[in-house]
Each structure stands twice: as C-alpha cells, then as structure tokens.
Design brief:
binds adenosine-5'-diphosphate; binds magnesium ion; 560 residues; alpha+beta; single chain; four-stranded antiparallel sheet; cytoplasm; GROEL, domain 2; GroEL; chaperone; ATP-dependent protein folding chaperone
C-alpha cells in the first residue's frame, strides 16, 4: 500500500528484521564455520562418511561434499552460499567439493579476528582477491602436463587420477579396479560431451568385484510377453532395428472411430486389424533385423511372431537406453516401419541376454561407433551401490577433466602447502597491513593438509611442521601428507595426483565466496517469507523504515 503512494521510497514491513554492521559479518562467518564443520571430517582417504536421513525416511550415506551440503537443508542465508559453491564445483569439475567448502570457511575464519578488531572488510577483500589470483597463477605454473604421451602411458596416468579421487570413497578398497574401469569408459566415449553416454546400472547383490564394464550398452530386460522364451538370446553381428511405435494388436482400433451398420461387417474390421499388424511385423522381418527394440510396447502377438522367425525383441525400452543403443550401434530410431533401409539399422559384434545377479540384462558389445560404455555396478546394500555410483561419477568427471586439460598437480595437501609458502614469501615484500591479510590467506590454505591429518588420526601440528620445513627448503614442492604412515611423502612419486583444474576452480570459488560473505554487512528479513502475516499494519512502517533507511545511508557513505 505504502509503496503505491510513494513508489520511490521503500518502506519495510512490520516485523522486518534487519541486523547490520560488524556483528552481522561476524555472525555470518560463524554460520559458515558451522556448516564447514559438518563436512570437515569427510575430507581425504581416511575421511568419514555421513548418514543423512530426511523427513521422508530416505537414508543416504555419502562422502561427497556436494551431496551432503545439498541434503543438509541449510537455512542460514549466508551459509547457503557455501552450498552453492559446492554445487557449482560439482557441476564444473565434479570433484573437490569438500575442499572448496573448507577453503571458503577457513578464509573467513582467518578474517574474523581482523573484522572484530575493526578492520574494514574491503581491505580484507582486496588482499584476498590479489592473493587468490596469485595462488591460481602459481597452481598453473606448478601443474605438470601429461600431454604427448602414448595411449598406454596416458591410460595409466589417468587411472592414477581416478584412483586418487576414489581413495577417499567407500569403494576406495577397490580403487585400482574401478579406476581402470572408469578410464576405459571415458576413453570409449572419446570427445563426446554427452555424459549420459556412460550408463551406470545398479544391480544389488554380489560383491563390488562383480561389477563390470560393457563396451557398449546394457540395460535390464524389459517386460516381455509369452513367446519371449523361444526367442534366441545370443547373436553375432546382428542388425538392429530401433522403433518408436507400438507393435500391438489392440492399438489399431484406437486410431480411428468405426461405425458399422451390418454386424456381418465386423469380421472384416477384425481382419483388417490383423492385416495391419501382420503387415508391420512382416516389414520388420523383411528389413533383415535380428533384434527389434521399441520405446513403446511390443505385444504378445508380435513377440510370438518374432520368436517364430528367430528374432529377438524388447519393448518399452527407456528413451535414454534407446538413444544410447542408437549412438553405439549407429542405428536410427524409426517412427514407421515403411521403407526401412539398411542405413538406419544398427549393428554390433555380440548381442547377448545374460543373467546378472537376480536380473537379466540385454547387452550389446563391440559396437562400431564405440561411443558408449556401461558400468554395471554390483554390491550389497542399496545405499552402498548408490554411493558407489556417486563416487564413480566423481572419478568419471576427473578423468574427463584430466583428459581435456591434461595437467595435474600433486595432491595430499602438497600443492596447498607450496602455494601457502609462495604467498607467505610474497607477503613479506608487502608494506602495510595487507601483509597480514595475505599471510592469513596463506595460512588458511594449510587447512587441507591439516584436515587430512586430523581425519587420519595423525598429529597435525607435527606433520605440518615437517611439511613447512620441507617446502621451505626449496626442493620439497611435491611433498604432502603420507596417508599410510602418518609422515610426509612425495605425492607426485606416490601418484597422488589431482587435475590442476580442480584446485584452480576450488581456490577461485572459495575466494569469491568468502569475499562475498565479507562484503555483506546487513541482512534484511522479509516477514512475508517467514510467515503468512503479509498484511502488516501500515502505520508502524515509518519508524521501521526510517531505521532501515538510516542504515542504508550510513553504509553508502562508508563505502564511498
Ligand atoms: P573432495 O570432495 O574435496 O574431493 P575428498 O574426500 O575426495 O574431498 O578428498 C580429497 C583430498 O584428499 C585431496 O586433497 C586429495 O589430494 C587427498 N587425497 C586423496 N588421496 C590421497 C592419498 N592417497 N594420500 C593423501 N592424500 C590424498
Ligand atoms: Mg574427491
């Protein structure tokens, strides 16, 4: 109402809550620290997992920062920014989601004493931005390229990156097994950007080791009618027909309205129906295809018809699977069976229907265009397989990143220590208070190795001292936490590698987020979004609004 009378002045409603100033910055920092504390213990190969169960009774066990943050249902407005950066890290590079949250929170934690002492956040922000840029630059300088290696070499290097990612996960015990599987899958799809060309199918039961990779497509046997049993279950070099039509008898009469005046004509309608379906089936057979897949139903009549002619068929194949079959076998999905020419038929070396655990699977392998791969995951509990899938997703993303950018940095906190050292050295050359801020930024980077130690039960102070000493000596740039002995080791030599882009993105996002949170000194809570009492009394607005306006004016002046 008030806004209608005086559109140029924004007055705040009764119940609007504003808090501002230094206390607000500090309280935001505290909220972010609290959020980071929940994911803190998941970092690294010895990190713990979190079991989250939601109000619908769903249970998720995860080690993935982004997944945990998403499920936590955070309501604090500033802390939500951390959820966003975890999510963007996940979609941008796929790994380093815990890292990014920890870094951002640590940058803020280091800034807190300064804010409390009355340092203006913008001095801090300026120094942080510079330090962040220098850090990213340094990572780029230190990154080692894996370009120009032979395929075999490249494969083993990529497998090492994948293994590093997997080592912190539930399936870490079998990391070599899964790492090579992931590398094969990623190399199979080549440069194609469609991630869904790698299918992951989950079949409960068996052990992790029973998981396997299909160089092609695999999907669960679809619902089938009688007659299916008589169809052959294995073909060599079959032609494959992909359809998007129903092959069912009943479907015909629903396509048109029929009026009869003479009951004797009814038989001719029935005959016509049979003729139409037989005509369709006949055309399928004539196309020369040995396998017929359809996104829609294939009825009992068709199933029996195909069985009699030694043809395999599957109806109600999901859109995704059908597209993958099309991509892999070089076929094209048809919406009509008229004029099926040879070019639209797909082919593969072997088609087989196989038993996997309790399920039957249709497996197409040795596909000509080779641009698909399917990982069939086995394991005990559902939650376990689901976490395995998420972990594999991380590894797949990492291998793809490494393949695209092909530079890696040593993990285990080595790169973080090296950048920290570099920034500290730089800080010494700065005159003025900015020196302290850059130093704090450098110190915050140490959170990664420190947390890796804490999570593994090592003496973090001791290990960090050793690391600082080693890095300061000038020849220990690759030294990081040795997760097996509790000492320090050359991460590069131990093949604890991470794609450089993970670190660059993490530092960038964490710096941005912390600067963003530092720059917020006022939160205004709109009562309407809190409760349904939107119709607040207009009379009380003036005082409230005045207060808020004063706050705004003050901030404007301070900022210049
Ligand atoms: P994020 O979600 O950030 O990827 P992770 O739980 O995957 O968190 O942990 C990643 C961290 O663990 C990285 O800093 C990586 O260098 C480190 N790391 C992974 N494997 C090892 C290892 N074998 N030894 C030491 N550090 C490792
Ligand atoms: Mg990881």
């Amino acid at each position: 109402m008030a806004s209608m009378m005086q559109p140029q002045i924004i007055l705040l409603k009764e119940g609007t809550d504003t808090s501002q100033g230094r206390a607000q910055v500090v309280s935001n920092i505290n909220a972010c620290t609290a959020v980071a504390d929940t994911v803190r213990t998941t970092l690294g190969p010895r990190g713990m997992d979190k079991l989250i169960h939601d109000d619908k009774g769903g249970v998720t066990i995860s080690n993935d920062g982004a997944t945990i943050m998403r499920l936590l249902d955070i309501v604090h407005p500033a802390a939500k920014i951390l959820v966003d950066i975890a999510r963007s890290q996940d979609s941008e590079v796929g790994d380093g989601t815990t890292t990014v949250v920890l870094l951002a929170a640590e940058f803020l934690k280091e800034a807190k004493p300064y804010v409390e002492d009355g340092v203006h956040p913008h001095s801090l922000i300026r120094s942080y931005r510079t330090a962040g840029n220098m850090a990213m630059q340094r990572v780029k300088e230190l990154a080692v390229s894996i370009e120009g290696k032979s395929l075999e070499e490249k494969k083993s290097l990529l497998a090492k990156c994948a293994a590093t990612t997997l080592s912190s996960k539930l399936i870490g015990g079998e990391k070599e097994f899964f790492a090579s599987m992931v590398v094969d899958a990623v190399l199979a799809i080549g440069n194609d950007d469609r991630l869904n060309l790698i299918g992951i199918k989950k079949v409960p039961g068996g052990t992790m080791r029973d998981s396997f990779l299909v160089n092609g497509v695999a999907f669960k046997k679809t619902f089938s009618y009688a007659g299916f049993e008589q169809q052959p279950k294995k073909f060599l070099n079959p032609k494959i027909l992909l359809l998007n039509i129903e092959l069912e008898l009943k479907s015909e009469k629903e396509n048109a309205e029929i009026r009869l005046s003479d009951p004797l004509q009814y038989q001719s309608i029935v005959d016509a129906e049979w003729n139409i379906i037989y005509d369709k089936l006949d055309k399928c057979v004539k196309s020369g295809a040995k396998i017929v897949l359809s996104r829609l139903a294939i009825g009992d009549l068709a199933t029996q018809y195909f069985a009699d002619r030694d043809i395999f068929c599957a109806g109600r194949v999901t859109e995704e699977d059908l597209q993958r079959v099309a991509a892999a076998t070089g076929g094209m999905v048809q919406t009509s069976v008229n004029n099926v020419i040879d070019e639209v038929l797909g082919s593969c070396e072997v088609f087989e229907e196989k038993q996997v655990g309790n399920e039957r699977f249709n497996i197409f392998s040795g596909c000509p265009s080779g641009q698909t791969a399917t990982i069939v995951l086995r394991g005990g509990a559902d939650q376990f397989i689901e976490e395995a899938e998420r972990s594999l997703h991380d590894a797949i993303m990492i291998v793809r990143r490494a393949l695209k950018n092909s530079t890696v940095v040593p993990g285990g906190g080595a790169i973080d220590m090296e950048i920290s050292k570099y920034l500290r050295q730089h800080a010494r050359t700065i005159a003025g208070k900015s020196q302290f801020f850059v130093n704090s930024f450098a110190k915050a980077l140490e959170v990664i190795p420190r947390q890796l130690c804490d999570n593994a039960g090592f003496d973090a102070t001791d290990v960090l001292n050793k690391l600082r000493q080693k890095h300061a000596s000038g020849e220990g740039a690759n030294y990081g936490v040795d997760i097996n002995t509790g000492g320090i080791a050359d991460s590069f030599a131990n093949f604890v590698w991470e794609p450089a882009v993970v670190k660059i993105n993490a530092i960038n996002a964490a710096t941005e987020a912390s600067c963003l949170i530092l720059s917020v000194d006022e939160t205004v809570k709109n009562p309407k979004s809190e409760s349904a009492q939107g119709e607040a009394a207009a009379g009380a607005m003036a005082g409230r609004g005045g207060g808020a306006m004063r706050g705004r004016g003050g901030r404007g002046m301070r900022r210049r």
